Amino acid sequence: MWGTQMWGTQMWGHADVGLRIGAGIHRRGAGSVCDNSDVSSWSRSGDRHVRATALTSVAWIVAAICVMVLSVVPAAVASAAPATAPPQPAESVEVGPYAVTDTVTTASCAGSLYGQYQIMSAKGYVTAPLRCTDNFPYGTATPVDVHFTYPTSGAGPFPLVVLVPGFTGNPGYFDATARIYASFGFVVAVAFDALNLTPESHLLGISAAYQQNNDPHSPLHHRIDLRRTIVGGHSAGAAAALQTAQLAGPLEQATSGQVRLAAAMSIQPAAATMLISGGAISIPTFLLAGELDNTATPASVRALYEQMSGPAWFAMLTGAHHLTSIDAPEYNGFLNGETAWLRFVAGDDSACRYFAGGQWSPRVFPNFSEFDRNRAAASSPCPRSPRTDHLA
């Protein structure tokens, strides 16, 4: 967990990396440090302070109302057709060569009332028990924070992946996914603000990564390549990733080129999709849909894909429900495609053939019944990395 655990507050970051993009985006950052033993020495310097704001107080009120509503209204996933039999394991999950660590611990979501509700809502859609952190509304810890998972070896710098959960989703849902991503040589920041509906969460994650990259007391000091930042998420967090992708140009300008969005990965995007303009997204974008998903339907995800003016790829996973992407890795058929995409956009030549060039071979992922790319993607070369020795 991050050290400063205060409700009704907004974390404000380093003045040099204020992410002020237009009138609607405020200077955000991660204002505290992790409690895990391997990172207990992280600096608690003066630029990590917490400032209460009326805007954030309103956000928590809204969050509380949403939690109360969700406690009596069936979850969105309940609209999906229930699984009639236990799902079969996906193809074996590929894991990279790096040992990893993280800055937070998880436990069964059954430890809280709201977690128990989510478990009941997910019954029939996930195979493994959901894992949760203690962040509100699942516990008493702050509802706004950033958790890191990263390689313990290798000098880096490693590309950054900023993941945001779905609406009121717990960051612990991404625990296994983040560890697999990191095993391929990525620093993964799971950012959240209870609602996870807007680019604020992704910008919070980027600002936190900037701070740790520049903190000489951090184990991530100079180990993050912020110019290869990939924004992603699931459900509402996936839609927020696309909203953030629209800000790629202003973000790079606002940070004087220190931060560059290299790509976006949107896993079953739902909620606030009306705020997404595909024509405003120029960075490479991967959109993933589940065949049996009635929340982020394949048709709605494909419609977003067809709006994209920049390089875009679309994949649909056979038999997948809305929560398949947060299931245990052996039941998450999205994972191998996700890690291949991350390696591709980070400049790994061994993953390039899956997505680029005339001889691209997406059928290497047998569980995807649809796999398309638009004209801009078909004409795109493989991204080049300044250094790729950290990639598997």
Automatic annotation (TrEMBL):
Plastid in keyword set: no
Record-linked Gene3D superfamilies: alpha/beta hydrolase (3.40.50.1820)
Keywords: Membrane, Transmembrane, Transmembrane helix
Transmembrane segments: 54-77
Domain of life the protein comes from: Bacteria
Tagged with keyword Glycoprotein: no
A Pfam family per the record: PETase
Ranges of residues in domain PET hydrolase/cutinase-like: 149-349
Protein name (record): PET hydrolase/cutinase-like domain-containing protein
